[in-house]
Amino acid sequence: MNSLSFSELFGYLQTAFMETFIMVGISLVVSVILGGAFGMLLFSTREGLFWENRWVNQISGVLINIIRSVPFIILLVLLLPVTKLLIGTSIGPLAACVSMSVASFSFFARIVESSLNEVDKGVIEASRAFGVGNFNIIKGVLLPEALPGIYRGITILAIALVGNSANAGMVGGGGIGDLAIRFGFYRYQTDVMFITVIILIVLVQAIQMLGDIIAKRAERK
Amino acid sequence: MSEIIISFKNIGVTFPYKGKEIVAVNNATFDIRKGEVFGIVGTSGAGKSTLLRTINLLQKPTQGEVFVHGRNITAYKGEELRRLRTGIGMIFQQFNLINTKTVYDNIAFVMKSTGKTKEEIAKRVPEVLQLVGLQHRSQSYPAKLSGGEKQRVGIARALANNPDILLCDEPTSALDLENTNAILKLLKEINIRLGITTVIISHEMHVIKKICNRVAVMSQGEVVELDDVFAVFSRPQNAYTKQLVSHTLDLELPLRPACKESVTLKLLYSGDTANESVISDTIIRFGVKINILLGKIEYITDKPFGALIVQISGDTAQIALAEKYLRENVYRVENVIDYNI
Q1: Where on the phi/psi map is residue A12: left (φ > 0), alpha (ψ -120 to 50), or beta?
Q2: What are the structural domain ranges in chain A?
């Protein structure tokens, strides 16, 4: 097995980067929307809150826990039929997005729930005392106050997705992590592994910094 | 007698706790009059905050009825309840401002829910900020304000919708003494200028004494005493109230040995008698010596209320006459027991 030339490696890296970008980007958007909605549902149906409903709360909680209990690799395989139905194929970066989104929206739902729970109940009570309706309290108080926490949650989510995307190689998703595994782990090309890992470190670091800046700005302190 | 604005009828609030019922408020029945500053005082856990919250139904009573402006509001829901609440301002111990909104937007937020236009809001916000002396802080975020300033914003927000009732839930408990006095002064000014009925709860008699007209004393969920603040201070009836008042007046003497040829009295004098020279009269009339051990004059809602602890010595018969004279001419006289060593 020959070692890769620099231009070959560069080509591989370019494709891998694109694939990672697609997988992380799409899954991130899907899980922020779905997870955000579920997180709001979990929070607002809690005892003493806007739409207190024990049944809805318990059932959605259990559902989220079930998804979160399944190891990602197993979820990837389990969801193959669903992926085929949705995308038309069960391999490639787009296919990987399905199971990545399912795994991470459940994770993000809990992050949103706990960020919302961090919001000072006194501030919500004050708004109720002034006759502000539930919808306006959510829009004007709850979401803005929880936003710094939610931004931090999105940062955690994005980084977890970069990690998950490496496993997506199982279904031919590709990506930087997969490149590291294929060349570095299976072919003993330590230099390729080294470069890709460094790229991953830089990528994760960049996401974290960006997330911190955005969260800080939302905090207004 | 002025008009009644809030009326509690047999209010009871219980909370379920670990299978048992915890009684927070028990059988509270009293009225609050239009335009007065009404205090509710008691230790933490006495149920005062719970009772206050039944006025705008943040707490639903489990028993009894609350009347506001003569209407039974106990069963209010939805739109009706929202409309009631926009007519009642409220301030909180922890201020409860929205951290991610500026001072301006915090106030604008509670106005929007009443359907006010942008122009109306833009006109009203500077008005209420002016009222609390914070017009220059309009674009600041709460994190940049001091505790006293935060409470001023809280007051401005509470007044934004022109309420005729202002509920104050321990408004000064998170503030230092200087800010406490400034906020109390502001609340009193607002009460006088706008005629807004103010209900204030506190665990400190100091707060009540400063601004209230009448006070209800609560202990273990029950209203144990209710009267003019001055009357409660000068003639506390209930044992718990007596304790509260004596803590506030702080008239404790250090332990002293008893002296045979003297008698020690606590003289309480109020309003009308406070300015008379009873002490010097007594000395001249009966030829006794009067030694002042401790003296204090408090102003309770602008009326002087004084307390002196005096030791009278001299001829035993003359002491008895002097004591009799004092009892006739001073508002109230109590014997101070000295300890025999």
Answers
A1: alpha
A2: 6-220
> In this complex, do A126 and B81 lie within 8 Å of one another by their Cβ atoms?
no
Residue of B nearest to A216 (CA): B100
Distances (CA, A) of B313 to B214, B232, B306, B316, B321: 40, 32, 22, 8, 12
Which residue of B81, B94, B98 is in closest CB contact with A145? B98
Residue B13: helix, strand or coil by DSSP?
strand
- Identify the CATH number of the domain defined by range A6-220: 1.10.3720.10
Query: Which residue, B43, B40, B14, B42, is CA-closest to B26?
Result: B14
A111 with A153: CB under 8 angstroms?
yes
Identify the pLDDT of residue B128. 96
Token pair recorded at residue B76? 């209010």
Residue from B53, B76, B85, B100 whose CB has the most chain A CBs within 10 Å, to mutate = B100
Helix (H) or strand (E) holding A121: helix A121-129
B209 to each of A97, B188, B241, B247, B275, how far by Cα in Å? 67, 12, 13, 13, 21
- Closest by alpha carbon to B211, among B183, B235, B231? B183
Q: Give the ipTM of the model, two decimals please.
A: 0.82
DSSP string, B221-264: TEEEEEEEHHHHHHS--SHHHHHHHHHHHT-PPPP-B--TTEEE
What is the token pair recorded at A105?
């929206």
Nearest to B323 by CA among B276, B271, B262, B250: B262
Rounded distance, CA B153 to CA B129, Å? Answer: 7
Enter the DSSP assignment of A168: G
pTM value is 0.84
Count of alpha carbons within 13 Å of B144, Cβ hemisphere only?
14
CA dihedral B117, B122, B124, B128 (to 10 degrees): 140
CA distance B116 to B57: 23
Is A108 exposed, middle or buried (CB count within 10 Å of its CB: 0-12, 13-18, 19+)? Answer: buried
Per-residue pLDDT of B106-123, as tens digits, reads 999 999 988 899 999 999
Site from A50, A130, A150 to mutate, B interface, most B CB atoms within 10 angstroms = A130
What is the tens place of the pLDDT at every residue in A46-76? 887 888 889 999 999 999 999 999 998 888 8
> Are the Cβ atoms of B96 and A125 closer than 8 angstroms?
yes
Query: If phi over 0 gives left and psi between -120 and 50 gives alpha, with beta otherwise, what is residue B10?
Result: left
Q: Round to whole Å and give the CA distance between A119 and A204.
A: 28
CB contact under 8 A, A136 and B113: yes
A59 touches chain B (CB under 8 A): no
